[in-house]
Amino acid sequence: MRLGYHSITWGGVTGAAAGVTSVKDLVYRVPGDMDRALREISAAGYRGVEMFDGNVREFAEVRDDHPGSLHRLLDETALSLVGVYTGGNFVYPEILPDELHRVRRAAEDAARFGAAQLVVGGGAPRAQGIADGDHDRLARALDTVAGIAAEHGLSACYHPHLGTIGQSPEQIEAVFSRSSIGFCPDTAHLAAGGGDPAALIRRHADRIRHVHLKDLGSDGATFLPLGRGVLDLDGVLAAVAESGYDDWLVVELDTYDGDPAEAARISRAWLDGALDRAGLTVTTS
């Protein structure tokens, strides 16, 4: 296994203001300092970082020979860019071409900076509820996304997420029964959506391409550093090991009431013990 961390903790996630009037320019981004985030992720003992498409796009506009280039920052921190997270509504045919334009740009940026994974969220719930055919539309779009990723030498994986039509176990089944895209289980989102993370990992073991780890508070809604909540994360790691997956485990903590570097260290210390208990080996390369 290799251990990575998502830059989201250094400011949470926002959408680009341009997306209000231009779907093709709507991206996810962390409003915090990415230089600080990567340096503190590295100092906490992680060897990889995942970033949002909007933050990577900002770096893509910086020349590689500039002191603030992402290539230089990755070299200085000894981090690999593990993946780039993007997404879309994926159920509205009229705007789908613009959403796929955005996905293609994210894939281009991810490939430029050496990432292997295109992590994809989305599937819009309509004001009137899920319409007939929405899971079909989402699945077709995700298969197209997987093709775009492959064109750029990337693997694509779907991240079930609260607030989408891929939230509950039944909805996740509806997506995966219609699409061949890979799976990025997120422990806390799966549990908060009413599922058993370990059971869902076992159910879709052959699809796992990437893993997001975070803990969940007893209220079922608060995300926490690893080991600080109620999830059976040892059981999750056992299920991951059984699946044969042996690549990046990425801690993705949306927010933290304190120093984000502290949260990264808490989760890293928990992982040291948990991976040892599970008999899993961590590589630093």
Features of the shown structure:
single chain; 285 residues; alpha/beta; two-stranded antiparallel ribbon; 10 helices; globular
Characterise the protein shown here.
The protein has 285 residues and is α/β, with parallel strands linked by helices. Helices cover 39% and strands 16% of the residues. It is built from ten helices and twelve strands. The protein has helices spanning 34-43, 53-60, 70-77, 96-112, 134-151, 169-176, 187-192, 197-203, 233-243, 260-277; strands spanning 2-6, 14-15, 28-29, 48-52, 80-88, 117-122, 155-158, 182-183, 211-213, 215-216, 223-224, 248-251. The strands form three sheets. The chain has an eight-stranded parallel sheet. Strands 2-3 form a two-stranded antiparallel sheet. Strands 10-11 form a two-stranded antiparallel ribbon. Strand 6 (117-122), helix 5 and strand 7 (155-158) form a beta-alpha-beta unit. Helix 8 runs parallel beside helix 9 (233-243). The mean pLDDT is 96.
Q: How would you characterize the largest beta sheet?
A: 8 strands, parallel
How confident is the prediction overall: mean pLDDT?
A: 96
Summarize the amount of helix as a percent range: 25-40%
Alpha carbon gyration radius: 18 Å
Instruction: Determine the number of helices (DSSP H or I, runs of at least 4 residues).
Output: 10
How much of the sequence is in beta strands?
15-25%
Main-sheet strand order equals 8-7-6-5-4-1-12-9
N-to-C SSE string, H for helix and E for strand: EEEHEHHEHEHEHEHHEEEHEH
Question: What is the terminal-to-terminal distance?
Answer: 10 Å
Low-confidence stretches: none
Which structural class do the helices and strands define?
A: alpha/beta
The outline comes out as globular
Number of strands: 12
